[in-house]
Amino acid sequence: MRRYTIAALTVALISAPAWAHGASVSVTAPYNFYVPNIAVGEPHGGHHGHHQHGKHCKYVPGRYETVYQRVWVPGYYRTDYVPPVYKHKTVHGVTFTVMVSNGYHTKVWVPGHYTTKTYRVWRDGFWTCSR
Question: Which of 39, 63, 80, 81 has its CB 3.0 to 4.6 Å from that of 26, i.e. a possible disulfide?
Answer without folding.
Answer: 39
